Amino acid sequence: MNVQAWTFVMVGLSFALYIGVAIWARAGSTGEFYVAGGKVSPLTNGLATAADWMSAASFISMAGIISFMGRDGSVYLMGWTGGYVLLALLLAPYLRKFGKYTVPDFVGDRYYSQIARVVAVVCAIFVSFTYVAGQMRGVGIVFSRFLDVGINEGVLIGMAIVFFYAVLGGMKGITYTQVAQYCVLIFAFMVPAIYISIMITGQPVPQLGFGSTLADGSGVYLLERLDGLSQQLGFAAYTAGGKSTQDLFFITAALMVGTAGLPHVLVRFYTVPKVSGARSSAGWALLFIALLYTTAPAVAAFARTNLLSVIPEIAYTDVPEWFSKWESTGLIKFDDKNGDGHIQYTGPASDVENELTIDRDIMVLANPEIAQLPAWVVGLVAAGGLAAALSTAAGLLLVISSAVAHDLLKSTFRPNITDKGELLVARIAAGLAVCVAGYFGINPPGFVAQVVAFAFGLAAASFFPVILLGIFWKRANDRGAIAGMISGIGFTAGYIVYFKFMNPELNSAAHWLFGISPEGIGTFGMMINFAVAISVSLLTPPPPAAVQELVEEIRLPDHIGPAHELSA
Fold first, then answer.
1. How far apart are CA 92 and CA 126, in angstroms?
2. pTM attached to this predicted model
3. pLDDT at site 27
4. What is the rounded CA–CA span in Å between residue 462 and residue 104?
5. Which residues are 342's β-sheet partners?
6. Contact present, 62 and 296 (Cβ < 8 Å)
7. DSSP states of 370-429 as a string?
8. Could you tell me where the beta strands, DSSP code E, fall in 211-331?
9. Which long-range CB contacts under 8 A does 322-326 form with residues at least 24 apart?
10. Does residue 213 sit in helix, strand or coil?
11. Of the N and C termini of the chain, which has fewer Cβ atoms inside 10 Å?
């Protein structure tokens, strides 16, 4: 069978599995819809959390961005994995102990304010829609290449699938579907990595192949070869860095604290039955995540080496089939500027003008074809990319639906709504959210990893400070939390919009504030949030005694049971 046939088989089987699991685990109550009834085991939750967190950015775009950025791309590895350590140590057990469904629930109760709750809802929806745009974009890319449909049509197909199992199953259905999706995506990521590692270095372990010599007997190390290829074509050495130290720090920190503040990740720790389970499920998730994240640098190096070995100076009439297929999607563009019929792929330091534009989001998906792996491996990678994108999209859509139905309607405007009515509203909200997510997938504000980096920055600037202060500082009050969230997310969003959309010609280190890029400005927004929240809290009356006692209770790790029991 050819690549397209194998892709249909792999994607069809995986979709049938997801839909079957969603039907089997469909939610019957709000407790099951929001937090799977709080009965998920730590191991299962760890698998589901790993799938929820390893989005299209992790599977499709992260290795792609590292393959283009080289050493500077390490900020994504350090930030996202470091964030999980932060999450396990500082937030997960305490939030689970609080026992509420959502992050706005925590903010509203901890800061004894409906206004704080509404501000948190707005932040959650804003962050989630920014994040989900990257996921739907990833879905469109996979469908457009491997199923011969346009990116827009691919996004619509992905919308239909997510709508089915997210709206039907809620968190219960999503949890068990994400376990299946993790198995699919990790298998799809590791199989081609092992294949190519053996081909290039003779090492079956990609992590070791990354630092090994080439299998051609030359004694040259893989990274040494890649540095040479890059410099010959006018690119910077792959292992050289271009970003400033402060920008690397700010991006890494934004991704790290953004991980700890993402609402769709935090809500996963309400699905386990005990506080201790929240910590252990975070540990399991880190183990499952590390399997992909320690492999990604090797995949990036393999993909870049293969690309630079095949493309430069090739005649356009001799391009391989994979090149033509990706070109038809618009994600590879060739402009024969000198009219010689050959492709010149060069960097800024070359004397020859570059004629080739390659979307970095295709690198992981195209890598098996560039390396001429079997067609079934190519189809498997397509199924894995879809699993990564759809698993995270579903979690984000659930956050949006719960924010609308539970935090706005149930907790704010209609507290007497029935359980059945709230569940109906949650499903309607999820359906509407799918439509909005589809729009952003068709009209994305950037490539996948970049869009996701913006979402992490927004989460860092809005949620992380109020959650951390809410757990560890009794003096933090409602006015401080509200002012902090508004100032943090307002500054960060404004900075991103100014440089990325209003004045893209100014988007350079020479014009950035303190040399901080839009991808890293969330760290500065977080600092503003902390400063404003602490200052306003100190200048206004302290929280009520009952709230301060609640904070003390949350911070007792050995206390049995949550501070508030979960309601059905």
1. 22
2. 0.79
3. 52
4. 11
5. 315
6. yes
7. HTT--HHHHHHHHHHHHHHHHHHHHHHHHHHHHIIIIIIIIIII-TT--HHHHHHHHHHH
8. none
9. 322/366, 322/369, 322/370, 325/145, 326/145, 326/362, 326/366
10. strand
11. C
Strand, coil or helix: 342: strand
Residue type present at position 235: F
Range of the domain at 117: 3-305+370-554
Question: Closest Cα to residue 135, out of 388, 482, 474?
Answer: 388
Query: Could you tell me the CATH number of the domain that includes residue 264?
Result: 1.20.1730.10
- At residue 568, the pLDDT reads 33
Residue 345 lies in a domain: no
Structure-block tokens of residue 317:
């009439």
Full DSSP string of 494-552:
HHHHIIIII-GGG-STTTSGGG--TTTHHHHHHHHHHHHHHHHHHHSPPPPHHHHHHHH
Cβ-Cβ contacts under 8 Å for 289 (sequence gap 6 or more)? 50, 53, 54, 81, 84
pLDDT at 559: 45
Lookup result for tokens 């000198």: 338
Whether the per-residue pLDDT at 77 is higher than 60: the answer is yes
pLDDT one-digit tens code per residue, 166-222:
665 555 667 777 788 888 889 889 999 999 999 999 999 999 999 999 998 888 999
Asked whether residue 399 is domain-assigned, the answer is yes
3-state secondary structure of 434: helix
**Average pLDDT rounded to a whole number, residues 160-168:** 67
Number of domains in the chain: 1
399 within 8 A of 455, measured Cβ to Cβ: no
Strands 356-358 and 332-334: antiparallel
Residue 79 lies in a domain: yes
In a domain, 87, yes or no: yes
List the structure tokens of 205.
């372990």
Whole-angstrom distance, CA of residue 134 vs CA of residue 262: 15
CB-count burial class (<10 Å; 0-12, 13-18, 19+) for 513: exposed
Contact between 477 and 541 under an 8 Å Cβ cutoff? The reply is yes
Which amino acid would we find at residue 285? A
Q: What is the DSSP string of 21-86?
A: HHHHT---SHHHHHHGGG---HHHHHHHHHHHHS-HIIIIIIHHHHHHHGGGGHHHHHHHHHHHHH
- The Cα 497–Cα 272 span in angstroms is 38
- Is residue 361 within 8 A of residue 452, CB to CB? The reply is no
In the DSSP assignment, the letter for residue 215 is T
Q: Hey, CA dihedral for 359, 253, 500, 506, is it positive or negative? A: negative
pLDDT tens, position by position, 429-455: 877 877 887 887 777 655 555 566 777
Nearest-angstrom CA–CA distance, 458 and 254? 9
In angstroms, rounded to a whole number, what is the distance separating the alpha carbons of residues 9 and 13?
Answer: 6
